[in-house]
Specification:
It is a single chain. The protein is an all-alpha fold. The chain has one domain. The protein has seven helices and no strands. Helix 2 runs antiparallel to helix 7 and helix 4 packs antiparallel against helix 5. It is elongated, with a radius of gyration of 18 Å.
């Protein structure tokens, strides 16, 4: 199968399921709101909260695999596996998880930031709001270095990072949903996928 045909099929499939990204984005935003309103004072509560968020992010990545072309399937599969491993580890070892959560959060934010920056430049021609994903990616990378340097000093800071992750994921998914919705309309009108 040639690349253009594979890409068109992936775009058509994803465009037909734009509403899944919208619902996922809304769910992430609701979760972020709950996180920011919560009272998390113990090491266990913070570690369990992180574990749940990481596993949910991993499941989301795996659920989106059929929508991507081969190269992006590998990226999303690796990212999903990293999320699930970090989440399970935090749930199994909550006390130990808190001691090393700064490194995990730093790594997570660094990978997510690099990914968001890459996608923003790759989708620049197709996405009018590419700059927003670029800004989110830059902020995630800055947070990665900040987390790695002073993370153990504050439980509140950890909760804020979990909330920011959920918030950025929600915003990203909603933007993707509306871009896919627009592509669905373009495909129905007979517009070419690759320009």
């Amino acid at each position: 199968m040639n690349f253009a045909l594979e890409t068109r099929e992936a775009v058509e499939d994803a465009a037909g399921k734009w509403w899944l990204f919208l619902l996922g984005g809304i769910a992430w935003l609701v979760f972020a709101l709950i996180v920011f309103q919560g009272d998390y004072r113990t090491v266990y509560a913070v570690s369990i909260l992180f574990g749940i968020v990481a596993i949910a992010a991993g499941v989301t990545e795996f659920a989106s695999l059929p929508l991507w072309t081969t190269g992006w399937k590998i990226v999303h599969g690796i990212l999903g596996a990293l999320y699930v491993v970090a989440g399970v580890w935090a749930l199994v070892h909550p006390h130990n998880a808190f001691a090393t959560l700064a490194a995990l959060m730093g790594l997570f934010l660094l990978i997510k930031g690099i990914y968001d920056i890459m996608v923003s430049f790759i989708a620049k021609e197709q996405l009018e709001i590419w700059w927003l994903q670029l800004v989110i990616g830059i902020l995630e990378i800055l947070l990665a270095f900040w987390v790695s340097g002073s993370f153990r000093r504050s439980v509140i800071l950890l909760v804020a990072y979990v909330g920011v992750i959920a918030l950025s994921r929600g915003i990203t998914d909603i933007f993707v949903a509306f871009k896919l919705r627009g592509l669905k309309k373009d495909l129905a009108a007979g517009a070419p996928v690759l320009q």
